[in-house]
């Protein structure tokens, strides 16, 4: 750590603040977000999502649609922009730039109606962040700050996995030091979350909700003091308050617990967000831009007296694949073959259980790529079925109990399973991590299971 900070002594006190879609949804939301930025002199980089609803509209256009639908979506996009721009009284230069981007969207979506592609989708989708950042820069300027718009694609180099690209951290560090760092002393930088650029120059995206990840990556690349994630909920809760109204806010949580929560479905943070923060020990704060006074959650290295049970998360739309083959009996190498196929199809496996001739594994099918593609393609199923019989069960849900020392606690099983006596637990995964116990359950039972568990473990 000390070697990294000595490289960037001047950034040690800076904060990157990220505002999500609802925090830049309209003029009033943008103004509240600007209040937060202006209230803290340490905030030198602002990372934004597209205005709420924008990315969905852009994806709909990118998927190709008929002329009527297209006109309707374009109109909705224009309406969101105009509503902000009109109240801002934006300068002619910015107005022209926004119009140019709107014109681009129109042309690109006409192309998409003829033929769709992941490359085109990412290009179209990136316009949401380009527009929100232009408007927000203008707003900050009107409020008397020396803010500068910065195209993150100059520094966010990624691979070419469109829809869910992986950033190149080494390049990001070098380019951010060269192109971003020199500006931070005198200006406030406003830039896009979620988007990047691959080697050939095409725009890429980091997966739905990827702006959090961008902010954390910048925090790491420039060794900043903190990453602030401003969203529409005042922090991370013991479970989703929409499912359990009695859920409690967690004031302080350790990186590894929060990372488990994000991975297993807590929607507050993009699952990859915490990895850069963990790698370099930068604390992450999560709060609500509508209600900053309410405080939030600080995710950091360690907390005092970590509790046995920290949270319950829920991830819907899980698919279970059960692979059956007699070849597995006393054989070696079967799993290698299966996992090679899955990896060739870009599928990451979540949970896995095995018996003598069966392997069961779960896949996360929540639309986490920006291109909305289905994971279980015909090509994949055909390849798998040359090796084994494949059964697919859909509409399952993953309930994860997150906590500490879970695999070293006696009586844990009894506590959990007796509370859930009346439910069918399709698969159980426990023991790989000290921080979680995962249950795969029927989608219809999921909310009740979360409620029951929350009541028994937290209330
Ligand atoms: N605008 C993108 C999305 O809706 C990225 C983000 O919100 O972080 O997924
Ligand atoms: Mg978002």
Question: What do these coordinates show?
Answer:
The protein has 459 residues and is α/β, with parallel strands linked by helices. The protein folds into two domains: 15-231, 3-Layer(aba) Sandwich (Carbamate kinase), CATH 3.40.1160; 310-458, VC0802-like (2-Layer Sandwich), CATH 3.30.2130.10. The protein is 39% helix and 23% strand. The protein contains 15 helices and 18 strands. It has helices spanning 2-7, 27-39, 54-62, 67-88, 92-114, 118-142, 169-179, 181-184, 211-221, 255-263, 274-280, 334-344, 378-385, 412-419, 446-458; strands at residues 15-19, 43-48, 147-150, 188-192, 195-197, 203-205, 226-231, 236-237, 249-250, 252-254, 284-288, 296-300, 309-324, 349-354, 358-364, 389-403, 425-430, 436-442. The strands form four sheets. The protein has an eight-stranded mixed beta sheet with strand order 3-4-2-1-7-11-12-10, sandwiched between helices. A six-stranded antiparallel beta sheet has the order 14-15-13-16-18-17. It has a two-stranded antiparallel ribbon with strand order 5-6. A hairpin with a 3-residue loop joins strand 14 (349-354) and strand 15. Helix 3 packs antiparallel against helix 6 (118-142) and helix 7 packs across helix 9. The longest helix is centred in the first third of the chain and has 25 residues, at 118-142. It is globular, with a radius of gyration of 23 Å. The two termini are 40 Å apart. The model is unreliable at 1-5 (pLDDT under 50). Residues 20-21, 49, 209 line the site of magnesium ion.
Instruction: Work out the number of β strands.
Output: 18
CATH class of the largest domain: Alpha Beta
Distance between the termini: 40 Å
CATH topology of the largest domain: Carbamate kinase
Rounded mean pLDDT is 92
Number of helices: 15
- Rg from Cα: 23 Å
Strand order of the largest sheet: 3-4-2-1-7-11-12-10
């Amino acid at each position: 750590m000390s070697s990294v900070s000595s490289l960037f002594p001047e950034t040690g006190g800076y904060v990157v603040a990220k505002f999500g879609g609802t925090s830049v949804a309209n003029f009033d939301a943008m103004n509240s977000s600007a209040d937060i930025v202006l209230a803290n002199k340490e905030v030198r980089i602002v990372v934004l999502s597209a205005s709420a609803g924008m990315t969905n509209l852009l994806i709909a256009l990118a998927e190709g649609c008929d002329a009527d639908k297209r006109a309707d979506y374009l109109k909705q996009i224009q309406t969101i922009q105009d509503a902000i721009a009109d109240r801002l009284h934006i300068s002619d230069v910015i107005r022209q730039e926004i119009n140019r981007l709107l014109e681009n969207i129109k042309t690109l979506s006409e192309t998409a109606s003829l033929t769709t592609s992941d490359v085109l989708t990412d290009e179209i989708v990136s316009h949401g962040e380009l527009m929100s950042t232009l408007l927000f820069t203008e707003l900050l300027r009107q409020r008397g700050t020396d803010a500068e718009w910065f195209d993150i694609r100059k520094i966010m180099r990624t691979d070419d996995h469109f829809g869910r690209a992986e950033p190149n951290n080494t390049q990001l560090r070098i380019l951010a030091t060269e192109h971003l760092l020199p500006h931070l002393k005198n200006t406030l930088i406003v830039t896009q979350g979620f988007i990047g650029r691959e080697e050939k120059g095409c725009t890429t995206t980091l997966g739905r909700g990827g702006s959090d990840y961008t902010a954390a990556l910048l925090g790491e690349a420039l060794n900043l003091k903190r990453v602030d994630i401003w969203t529409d909920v005042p922090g991370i809760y013991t479970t989703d308050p929409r499912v359990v109204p009695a859920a409690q806010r967690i004031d302080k949580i350790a990186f590894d617990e929060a990372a488990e929560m994000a991975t297993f479905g807590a929607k507050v943070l993009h699952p990859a967000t915490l990895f850069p923060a963990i790698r370099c020990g930068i604390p992450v704060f999560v709060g609500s831009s509508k209600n900053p006074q309410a405080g939030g959650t600080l995710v950091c290295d360690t907390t005092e007296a970590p509790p046995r049970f920290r949270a319950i998360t829920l991830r819907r739309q899980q698919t279970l694949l059960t692979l059956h083959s007699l070849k597995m009996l006393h054989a070696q190498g079967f799993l290698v073959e299966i996992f090679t196929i899955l990896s060739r199809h870009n599928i990451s496996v979540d949970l896995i259980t095995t018996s003598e001739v069966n392997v069961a594994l779960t896949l996360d099918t929540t639309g986490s790529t920006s291109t909305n593609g289905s994971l279980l393609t015909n090509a994949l199923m055909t390849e798998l079925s040359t090796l084994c019989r494949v059964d697919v069960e859909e509409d399952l849900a993953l309930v994860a109990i997150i906590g500490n020392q879970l695999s070293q606690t006696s009586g844990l099983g009894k506590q959990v399973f007796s509370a859930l006596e009346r439910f069918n637990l399709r698969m159980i995964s426990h023991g790989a991590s000290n921080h979680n116990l995962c249950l795969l359950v029927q989608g219809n039972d999921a909310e009740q299971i979360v409620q029951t568990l929350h009541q028994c473990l937290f209330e």
